[in-house]
Amino acid sequence: MIRFTLVISCLALTACGAEKEKAPTGQVVARIAGAEITAAELRLETPSLPDDPVAVREIQQQALEGLISRKILAAYAQSEGMDKTPEAAMVLSRARDLALMQLVRSALSKNVPNVSDDEVAAYVTAHPASFAQRKLLTVDQFILPPVSTSIAKQLAAYQSLQQVKDLLERSGIKYVRSAAIMDTLSLEPEVAATTAGLKEGALLMTPGGDGGFVMSQITAIRAEPLEDAAALQAARFILTNQRSTTQVRNALNTIVKRERAKVMVNPAFVTKTGQATTAEPGPAKGDAR
């Protein structure tokens, strides 16, 4: 059994069996099976916090409970020897690689050049559908997985979700039906611009996650202009994020391109185009499969 002591603010000492442990103090937030959770670890779980002290305490409490649960389950996995299997070694290695890659991204995203006031103003002027003519669109949606080019062309020509539904069901394509409010500010500017003349009942096709699509039929439209200081603030955020994303992507591509030439790949995992593939290779000479 894993025993742990948790202290947040003024929680009293916790007794474990007949033996009482002293509550953590200072920068130690909690103690689990002899291991400590520090304030720094808790801050890492909550990188962005609101100004409201009450909300901050609630967010930190939830984050701490999640962190404690994670630590308990990790300790349990170790106590059961689950971390000693070959599969565990691969999973842990992958997790470490992803964490290191995120550290690289974070490092590369620093020192992004500031966006000038002129750039911000020009962006607002160039994209009225996102700012001065901003709209909130209430929509019914079909969320689709990646589909073939021919299916995508048919979807783009349709005028109603019923047509979309009929095609998907005929083609055996699974989808998720949902409802949402689309903010033209959060759409790509080119997509937002296409909504300018749309009316209720119009069908909108936008990119979805993992290469799929979202088919949205507009059921209501509400104008919500974003102007003056609010528009400039939003535009600055968008441009800064775009600049950071571009800077990180270019730097990552440079690193990968420089090192990729040194990598040797099993020919069985290389396609005709020279790209590595995830397909399982066939048996090598001498293999008895």
TrEMBL record:
Top-rank taxon of the source lineage equals Bacteria
Task: Note the SUPFAM superfamilies from the entry.
Answer: Triger factor/SurA peptide-binding domain-like (SSF109998)
List the PROSITE patterns hit by this protein, alphabetically. Answer: PROKAR_LIPOPROTEIN
The record's section on InterPro entries has:
Trigger_fact/SurA_dom_sf
Give the protein's recorded name: Peptidyl-prolyl cis-trans isomerase, EpsD family
Per the UniProt record, the source organism is Novosphingobium subterraneum
